[in-house]
Structure formats: C-alpha cells, structure tokens
From TrEMBL:
Keywords: mRNA processing, mRNA splicing, Nucleus, Spliceosome. Residues 55-100 form the CWF21 domain. Belongs to the CWC21 family. GO terms for biological process: mRNA processing; RNA splicing. The keyword Nucleus applies. Its main location: nucleus. The gene is CWC21. PANTHER family: SERINE/ARGININE REPETITIVE MATRIX 2 (PTHR36562), SERINE_ARGININE REPETITIVE MATRIX 2 (PTHR36562:SF5). The keyword Nucleus applies. Residues 1-57, 96-115, 132-175 are annotated as: Disordered. This is RNA-splicing factor. It is found in: Nucleus. Residues 37-57 have a biased composition (Basic and acidic residues).
C-alpha cells in the first residue's frame, strides 16, 4: 500500500483492499462566476439584431417554394409550358406584393430566430411609442440624476432629499 491511502489491512473488511479514485467527484472551480458582476459596464440589454440578408433570402425562398408547388401541380395536370410560366409569374408577383405589406408574426417557429428578432424589435418599438418613452431613454437614468443632485446638495452643505418627497417635512436620508 502506498502513501497511506485506503485500509491499513483488508482483513475482515470483505474487500480486496484495492483502492480506486472517485470518478464522480467534482472539483470546485476557482473564482467561477457565470455572469459579469460589474453592473456599471452593462448599460442595458441589447436586442439581437436580425440579419437582413437572411431575412430577404427566407422571404424569397418562401415565394419560390409556393411557385414551385404550383408549377409541379400544373405540369402534373398537363398544362402547356407557356401557360405554366405565365401562371407562375403571376403568382410570384402576387406573393411578392403581399410580402411587402408585412410578415405574419403569429406563425413564426422557434427556429426562425431572425424573423423572431425582427418581430420583437417591432413589438418593442410599438410599445415604446404607445407608452411615450423617448428614443434616447436610458434605463436607470432617473436614479443617476437623483444621486448627482444629492451629491451637489451635500457639497453645498445640505443633507440630501427627503424620503417622502414632502419638501423637507419628512424623514431625511441617513448617511
């Protein structure tokens, strides 16, 4: 036996005394932090921007799939080639004009990440306009301005803002 590992003697233990290392033991990671703890460096959540080329390609692909299905069906029915081309061109123009009005966001699947991202940005923009939020709004800006005013007042010799906003009649912040 080496380096005092395991049983001093296997007698009476019901084992052979062979020592194996524990493969299921997880060693703790040193200083592992999954998220950034510096909140000042995180200005705000940035939405994923959709790739315009992928969106355009996906739109064209959907149109061409429907045109191909029509072409396949007409060829199976025995329609002349010129008539098939005319109907396919008419369907293509009709579908492209419909897609220009806007996509249907209700039928998006989870794998359509760029379409979902575009729909989310449009939804956020509509919500921002409905609530009257400025475009240059920065999250937490009110508190930062309040702290700056409090710091300026302390430099001037004041004590800070009243907690209840009662104009000096309520409790003051305790430092």
């Amino acid at each position: 036996m080496s380096s005092n590992v395991g049983l001093t003697t296997p007698r009476g233990s019901g084992t052979s005394g062979y020592v194996q290392r524990n493969l299921s033991h997880l060693k703790p990671r040193d200083n592992y932090a999954p998220y950034n703890k510096d909140f000042d460096s995180i200005k705000h959540h940035q939405q994923r921007q959709p790739d315009k080329d992928i969106l355009e390609h996906e739109r064209k692909r959907e149109v061409e799939v429907k045109v191909f299905e029509l072409r396949d069906r007409l060829e199976d029915e025995g329609v002349e080639e010129d008539e098939v081309d005319e109907q396919c061109d008419a369907l293509r123009k009709k579908l492209e004009s419909q897609r220009a009005t806007g996509p249907n966001t209700r039928n998006l699947k989870s794998h359509q990440v760029h379409e979902l991202a575009r729909a989310k940005i449009e939804e956020s923009e509509r919500l921002r306009k409905a609530l009257g939020i400025r475009e240059d709004y920065e999250e937490g800006g009110h508190w930062r301005e309040r702290e700056e005013r409090k710091g300026e007042r302390e430099k001037e010799g004041g004590k800070g803002e009243p907690r209840d906003g009662a104009g000096g009649r309520g409790y003051r912040d305790r430092d």
